[in-house]
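Appendix C: a fully annotated inverse folding record. The material below is reproduced so that readers can follow the format used throughout the book. The structure is listed first as tokens, followed by the designed sequence.
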């Protein structure tokens, strides 16, 4: 028997038991005539003790163990004198009577610790070592538990899990297809699915009114932090429903997952139109965990003699409250940030609201004190606030200011990963203009329906047609 228990389950209730554990050597240390070994498996860590007074040869063998050796030990559970509250087995240790090396190991190229000294490249090269670290393992466990809860909830809502084919015919969607040559049909190719869209529509017309699967999708597009060539999505479809039915079902799914996995009650999820999201945040997936909503300034900033503002389609800014202390170096860094090719802005105007209520800006010579005060009033700014303003084409400058907003929020610690503020973004445009092809394309996908009241606009102003489309962000 390789083990009677895992490395994360023994407690004071097991004192006096003879147990067998198997796992990896996390670390070892000598103290006087004793050697202490931390042995690790996926369930936790248990401390082992080897005493030279009891068995000198056994202790000598223990001293030869290196990091990541795979070992099997048998011994007695005893109470630990120096307890460790950070681990579940911190009240006990194993007094080892037998040690067997199952597999020796070379010195790892990086430390197998939560805070490793290995960079991304080396960790990807030795992925099997990286997978031994707690954060990576916890992510996989979280994913597993989430998948289980998704299935449990959707099953309770009468959804059927149906697997759809991976080798399909290429269809026009949002990105390029990955293609697979057919051996049986030379010169012809299968495509890997960007989504199971066609198949779930077939299921709907076949009478399967509620379908889901946790499915792998493939898209041959440029890599970004939030885009991978293959990814997994919770794919669903419903028949005989309206938008409100869909929103309620999947808001319920989100609430169920957060409650069962994180112990968090989400409450009612707010809704925001796409138009408002772009106007207030410059993004169709706005981060609403903090303020800094956009303030449009055309009425108070244009026509005052500052060429950049006067030539712009939109002048817009954010109020970084209580940030007037930002130094010139910090402001220059923000300017350099938005000038990066990925963002493409040409410059940044800033204004500080002083303690006496006066406003000092980087473009003072173009504005009177009264005009600067009017700009500050548009932000509802107070003494100590920092106003960050950009100008340009409407769509472009909104996206650029969104990047600046997120960067400032990150610097201020507003983007806490343990704080959640989801929302529905609704009423997306049905179509978007593609400069390269010179025509409109479906913003989401060709199966999205227009809002009935906007159908007449398809012939006159297709860019203004809203879709029955929505995102949970």
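Designed amino acids, in order:
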């Amino acid at each position: 028997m390789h083990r009677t228990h895992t490395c994360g389950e023994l407690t004071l209730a097991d004192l006096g038991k003879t147990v067998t554990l198997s796992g990896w050597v996390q670390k070892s240390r000598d103290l006087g005539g004793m050697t202490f070994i931390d042995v690790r498996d996926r369930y936790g860590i248990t401390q082992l003790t080897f005493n030279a007074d009891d068995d000198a040869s056994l202790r000598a063998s223990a001293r030869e163990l290196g990091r990541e050796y795979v070992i099997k030990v048998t011994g007695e559970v005893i109470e630990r004198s120096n307890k460790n509250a950070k681990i579940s087995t911190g009240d006990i240790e194993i007094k080892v009577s037998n040690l067997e090396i199952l597999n020796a190991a070379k010195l790892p190229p990086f430390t197998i610790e939560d805070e490793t000294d290995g960079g991304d490249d080396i960790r990807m090269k030795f992925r099997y070592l990286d997978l031994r670290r707690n954060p990576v393992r916890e992510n996989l466990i979280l994913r597993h538990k989430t998948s289980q809860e998704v299935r449990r909830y959707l099953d309770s809502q009468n959804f059927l899990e149906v697997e759809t084919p991976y080798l399909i015919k290429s269809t026009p969607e949002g990105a390029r297809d990955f293609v697979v040559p057919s051996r049986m049909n030379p010169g012809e190719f299968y495509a890997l699915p960007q989504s199971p869209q066609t198949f779930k529509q077939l299921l709907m017309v076949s009478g399967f009114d509620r379908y889901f699967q946790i499915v792998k999708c493939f898209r041959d597009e440029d890599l970004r932090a939030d885009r991978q060539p293959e990814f997994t999505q919770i794919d669903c479809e419903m028949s005989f429903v309206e938008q409100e039915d869909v929103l309620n079902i999947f808001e319920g799914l989100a609430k169920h997952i957060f409650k069962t996995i994180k112990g968090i009650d989400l409450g009612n999820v707010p809704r925001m139109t796409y138009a408002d999201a772009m106007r207030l945040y410059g993004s169709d997936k706005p981060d609403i965990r903090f303020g800094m909503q956009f303030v449009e300034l055309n009425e108070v900033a244009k026509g005052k003699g500052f060429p950049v503002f006067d030539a712009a389609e939109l002048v817009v800014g954010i109020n970084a409250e209580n940030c007037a202390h930002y130094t010139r170096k910090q402001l220059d860094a923000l300017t350099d940030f938005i000038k990066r090719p990925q963002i493409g802005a040409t410059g940044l105007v800033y204004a500080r609201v002083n303690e006496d209520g006066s406003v000092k800006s980087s473009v003072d010579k173009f504005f009177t004190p009264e005009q600067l005060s009017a700009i500050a009033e548009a932000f509802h700014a107070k003494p100590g606030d920092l106003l960050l303003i950009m100008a340009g084409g409407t769509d472009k400058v909104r996206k650029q200011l969104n990047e600046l907003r997120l960067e400032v929020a990150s610097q201020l610690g507003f983007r806490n990963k343990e704080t959640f503020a989801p929302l529905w973004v609704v009423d997306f445009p049905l179509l978007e203009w593609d400069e390269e092809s010179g025509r409109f394309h479906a913003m989401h996908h060709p199966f999205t329906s227009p809002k009935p009241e906007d159908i007449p606009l398809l012939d006159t102003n297709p860019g203004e047609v809203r879709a029955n489309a929505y995102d949970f962000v």
